[in-house]
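[job 4471] stage=fold_predict status=RUNNING
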Amino acid sequence: MSLGLAPKRRFSQNFLTDQRTAQKIADALQIRNGDHVLEIGPGTGALTKWLAVSNAASIVAVDLDERAIARVSSEPWVDHKRMVFKLQDVLQVRLSQVFPDVTPSQRCVIGNIPYAITSDILFWLFDQRADMRTSVIMMQREVARRCVAQPGTKEYGILSIASWYASTPKLLFQVQPGSFFPRPDVTSAVVRFEFRDHSPLDIEFEPFMAFVRAAFSQRRKVLSNALASWWSGTAAELRTTVAGVDLSTARAEQLTPQQLGAMCRELLARKGADQA
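[job 4471] inference complete, writing structure tokens
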């Protein structure tokens, strides 16, 4: 297939070629008049083309591949008055700097992201949750399922809780391997994240996620054992009931984000009391 751009393995590139799917993904962002959109990895411009005909006030497309930037920015449909192309690592980009004079409710992010750095990009989004309204991301289907997984399922884990804390995530639809070149070995899926305008828990994201990572670090172990590396006290102090949960019998995968948040708050309070 001739795309005018040969995929490079080091960029983990699988170019979207199905225009109907590209339009569907762009439409899922639900761009409003006055919105400003950041696109992650325009590649050959499959999504960019549909963003160009949207109501977006401005579009900034970021890619590490200078060939992609050169190719897409020279397309005849590009409106250079409102479209900017940046050769940059998106993980170094801050939305508040790209769109400095725009309210968070007018900032959106979209992308068909490389599978190799999916987790990095998702947590990059979550870290900037207060700086945007929504994001539509195409990723590997298994990762998408983890983003929306419920307690008690095998997919439920760190990513599920991080997605819940930062947003209201929704798995929209799947995309088959034949929609890409080169054809990936896995099915993809599109997830929309509607970011919260306030924290759902009375605890900050970073300390909570440190607790969650420890809680899920050894899924088969009960929490009194799994949390040992996170807890600064004695092992005996963890073999107790915290926020109504018996740590000596419960496992993280059985608990809701709210239950884990309550446990984290109580244990951090105990830590603080011990150190006082």
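[job 4471] summary: The chain has ten helices and eleven strands.
[job 4471] exit 0
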